[in-house]
């Protein structure tokens, strides 16, 4: 059966002498794997189509009994070429697509998640938008859409408001107030200002979002909080290759 899908390229793997196995996240069926035969040949019209982060439309042969479908043809919708002119933005885009790849199951449609990825890549490629803001919005809303929304308003133990900040311990997936938290060597203390920034990211539409006014230390804490929280809920995210480069930028 011939099918069509709108998708973002998540990753590629060379196969044989001239082919590639492509992992996509599509609007129609979620995570999708295609084999594109001969696509690495210099004569192939689709040779430049499958760079990670590309927004494309593909036509493919679908076989219900196979996890790997056969690519027929495709066209570019948006290459987000502005990312290639800025190493920091390109790194964040690669983190976006790798985190998506490690967060979703095969062929589980989630149109809102797909649109979040497309919109976030578009914002990231726009130099008038702060790259960290675009990324933080994507990461927090990805967690929310997956059912892992960080609850930053109250202590997970005593339920009191976290006005003075909170801590996230290595063995806990939720925030605890100063009175309830048992400190550990890997605990992260998150100030009230950072918690408020996370709350605003989660509860505000992008068009209404005001620029985050955090100092350098608070921004570093926000990065640490997002990743430690994510590691608790999405175990496979711990091995992300793109995180090594991200840590060099923001470590």
Overview of the structural elements:
- There is one protein chain.
- The chain is elongated.
- The strands form two sheets. Strands 1-2-3-5-4 form a five-stranded mixed β-barrel.
- The relative contact order is 0.12.
- Helix 1 runs parallel beside helix 3 (131-145) and helix 4 packs across helix 5 (216-233).
- The protein has six helices and seven strands; from the N terminus they run E-E-E-E-E-H-H-H-E-E-H-H-H.
- Among the domains are: 2-78, Nucleic acid-binding proteins (OB fold (Dihydrolipoamide Acetyltransferase, E2P), Beta Barrel), CATH 2.40.50; 149-233, no CATH class.
- It is α+β, with helices and mostly antiparallel strands and 251 residues long.
List keywords for this structure.
alpha+beta, OB fold (Dihydrolipoamide Acetyltransferase, E2P), 6 helices
**Helical percent range?**
25-40%
Main sheet: strands, sense, barrel: 5 strands, mixed, barrel
Give the strand order of the largest sheet, numbering strands 1, 2, ... along the chain. 1-2-3-5-4
**Assembly status:** single chain
Query: What portion of the residues fall into strands of 2 or more residues?
Result: 15-25%
Number of helices: 6
Rg, alpha carbons: 20 Å
Question: Can I get a quick summary?
Answer:
The chain has 251 residues and is of the alpha+beta class.
What's the SSE blueprint?
Layout: E1 2-15, E2 19-26, E3 30-36, E4 55-61, E5 69-78, H1 87-103, H2 111-124, H3 131-145, E6 166-168, E7 188-190, H4 192-203, H5 216-233, H6 242-250
Helix pairs in contact: 1-3, 1-6, 2-3, 4-5
């Amino acid at each position: 059966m011939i099918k069509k899908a709108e998708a973002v390229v998540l990753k590629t793997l060379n196969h044989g002498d001239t082919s590639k196995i492509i992992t996509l996240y599509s609007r129609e069926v979620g995570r999708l794997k295609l084999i594109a035969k001969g696509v690495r040949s210099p004569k192939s019209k689709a040779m430049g189509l499958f760079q990670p982060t590309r927004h494309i439309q593909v036509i493919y042969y679908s076989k219900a009994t196979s996890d790997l479908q056969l690519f027929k043809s495709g066209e570019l919708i948006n290459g987000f070429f502005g990312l290639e002119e800025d190493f920091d933005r390109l790194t964040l885009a690669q983190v976006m697509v790798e985190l998506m790849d490690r967060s979703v199951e095969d062929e589980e449609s989630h149109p809102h998640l797909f649109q979040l990825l497309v919109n976030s890549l578009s914002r990231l490629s726009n130099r008038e938008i702060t790259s960290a803001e675009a990324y933080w919005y994507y990461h927090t809303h990805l967690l929310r859409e997956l059912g892992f929304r960080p609850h930053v308003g109250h202590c997970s133990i005593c339920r009191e408001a976290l006005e003075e900040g909170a801590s996230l311990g290595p063995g806990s997936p939720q925030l605890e107030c100063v009175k309830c938290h048992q400190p550990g060597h890997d605990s992260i203390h998150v100030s009230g200002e950072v918690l408020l920034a996370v709350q605003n990211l989660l509860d505000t539409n992008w068009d209404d979002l005001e620029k985050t006014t955090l100092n350098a230390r608070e921004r570093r804490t926000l990065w640490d909080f997002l990743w430690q929280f994510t590691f608790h809920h999405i175990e496979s995210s711990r091995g992300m290759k793109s995180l090594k480069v991200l840590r060099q930028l923001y470590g």
